[in-house]
């Protein structure tokens, strides 16, 4: 069985190979090591092996880990965020990938103003139309960006999506391509305070396809830490 350091090295090799295939600089792709249900000592192994950015899905779980591991790494929130947890998210995370509506962005703005912080966010776009997943419908993304541009303390840095689950990585490609095209449309509009620097897409099963389609942030957990433990 490979160690976490060996798994991490292998994932980096795959990221580099995918970027090269797409004619991209591998340095334009950041790895977000997803640490949902992963114990702090195992996260430290990844940290010691050079992982710099970690992604968490649950506020309460993340609080405990960040308390132990501190700010040696960059922490991103990648799960569904409830409005009543916004104050914790602003205090804990450099970036929040999963903004699924204006009301949540507005609450984050209110909290960030109090904290004296500008909060980086990504809009989660629902491209698959699945009832079990959150996200902004594609047809309302431009309007929501225009609304968010009036908020002082949040900055939209890009888009995120979760394609429908499939065992075939190629099944995700149309969704990744669609998100990149949406990113291009938004970039052309030059909406104030809205930048399209980031595309957060791709997980352990399909991150190479995501990179080929323009991902700048790939969220990889299982390929680094092994099968996920049940949430306690």
Percentage of helical residues?
A: 40-55%
* Subunit arrangement of the protein: single chain
Helices and strands, in order, run as HEHEHEHEHEEHEHEHEH
What CATH calls the topology is TIM Barrel
Low-confidence stretches: none
Please tally the β strands and state the result: 9
CATH class: Alpha Beta
Percent of residues in beta strands: 15-25%
**What coarse outline follows from CA principal-axis ratios?**
globular
Number of domains: 1
Number of H- or I-type helical stretches = 9
Radius of gyration, in angstroms, nearest whole number: 17 Å
Largest beta-sheet details = 9 strands, parallel
Mean pLDDT rating: 95
Q: CATH superfamily, please? A: Alanine racemase
- Please give the alpha-carbon distance between the first and last residues: 25 Å
The CATH architecture assignment turns out to be: Alpha-Beta Barrel
**SS-derived structural category:** alpha/beta
Topology of helices and strands:
Elements: H1 4-21, E1 30-34, H2 40-48, E2 53-56, H3 59-69, E3 74-77, H4 86-92, E4 95-99, H5 102-115, E5 119-126, E6 136-137, H6 141-148, E7 154-160, H7 173-189, E8 194-200, H8 207-212, E9 217-220, H9 222-225
Parallel strand pairs: 1-2, 1-9, 2-3, 3-4, 4-5, 5-6, 5-7, 7-8
Helix pairs in contact: 4-5
């Amino acid at each position: 069985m490979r160690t976490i350091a060996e798994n991490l090295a292998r994932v980096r090799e795959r990221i580099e190979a995918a970027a090269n295939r797409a004619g991209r600089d591998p340095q334009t792709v950041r790895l977000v090591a997803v640490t949902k249900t992963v114990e702090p000592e195992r996260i430290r192994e990844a940290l010691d092996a050079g992982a710099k950015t970690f992604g968490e899905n649950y506020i309460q779980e993340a609080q405990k880990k960040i308390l132990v591991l501190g700010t040696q790494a960059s922490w991103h929130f990648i799960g569904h965020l409830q409005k009543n947890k916004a104050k914790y998210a602003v205090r804990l995370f450099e970036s929040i990938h999963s903004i699924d509506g204006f009301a949540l962005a507005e609450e984050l703005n209110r909290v960030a103003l109090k904290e004296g912080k500008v909060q980086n966010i990504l809009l989660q776009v629902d491209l698959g139309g699945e009832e079990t997943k959150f996200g902004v419908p594609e047809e309302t993304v431009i309007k929501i960006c225009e609304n968010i541009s009036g908020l002082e303390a949040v900055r939209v840095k890009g888009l995120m999506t979760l394609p429908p689950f499939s065992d075939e990585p190629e099944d995700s490609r149309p969704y990744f391509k669609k998100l990149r095209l949406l990113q291009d449309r938004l970039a052309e509009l030059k909406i104030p305070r809205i930048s399209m620097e980031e595309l957060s897409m791709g997980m352990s099963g399909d991150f190479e396809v995501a990179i080929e389609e323009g991902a700048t942030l790939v969220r990889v957990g299982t390929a680094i830490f092994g099968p996920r433990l049940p949430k306690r």
